[in-house]
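dumping this here so i dont lose it again. seq + smiles for zinc ion
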Amino acid sequence: MSTRTMKAVRLSEYGQPEVLQYVDVPLPEVATGEVLVRVRATSASYWDLLYRRGGLTPPPGRPPLPLPFQLGREAAGEVVAVDTGVSRFKPGDRVVAMTCPACGNCEYCMRGLDNLCVDTTLPGYQRFGGYAQYVSRRDSELLRAPDEVPFEKLACLLWSYATVWRMAITRGSLRPGQDVLITAASSGMGTAAIQIARLGGARRIFATTGSAEKSDQLKRMGVDEVLDYREGNVPARVRELTNGAGVDLVLEFVGGDMFALGMQCLRMAGNLVSVAQHGGRMVTIDLGLLYRSDLTIHGARASTRRDQELVLALCASGKIDPVIHRVLPLRDAAEAHRILERQEHIGKIVLVP
Ligand SMILES: [Zn+2]
């Protein structure tokens, strides 16, 4: 590699995994206030699949999504160069790029809801993500990485774990002693949800999966009862296991029919938190069930800076430990997408440039 080029995975058109091309591209420029980071690990997510297929729309009022594009919500690595104005970081520092950097000044940031910042450009969505040997970021968009956490684990935390933290604890108000149902429990976010529900004091954790072979592994991770949604009546089984009541909290990672199924598994005054639409964006719900059972439905979008700092600290102290299914070289990004699409995985697929 010459000093002016790097390897990256980019897509110039939407389509099947083959559109992900491993190419030589110029090194990113380091603008005022920016830091150049050598990426040591990134990870693949359902978000990347949606973008690659052309299934995402830009946020309201924002420009169309860019093409050619470089996916990757997450990036962990080392600082290799800093602009003269940057004092927070120096070459050699281990860092993680924030998955939801925020401006700090807009109406939402001022209310402490920086996960909803209206003046940000999100990596892997509105600007180039981590599928490359190098990325440039403003110093305010980087967090210092704990020394004891390897890069492969760091590349799984800020998107999957911080989002799920906000989902379960902030939005879902998880309290010790509650029963929790997790849909798509073997996904990256699903495995994060198992750990965070356990950490939050859940009494029993139920999980849905469409693959019976994953049942034993999910149980070893802390799931009490694995429910195969392809066989049997999941809401009836959940009631049977909870003395007829249902669960306090559903963490819903699919959308479509699974959202409606999750609602049917709630006890009265229960909470459902939704973060996904790949199983279907439009859903029919039973309003009678909603009000008669005093249910609450929440959306959850990404995470705050505080959430992201918190999961780094929790990982450094061993309270959470990202589940990694495979580590692949970056050149095999298309294969990583195929594994996610075939749903063979339990946990995250990490890519190493
Ligand atoms: Zn803002």
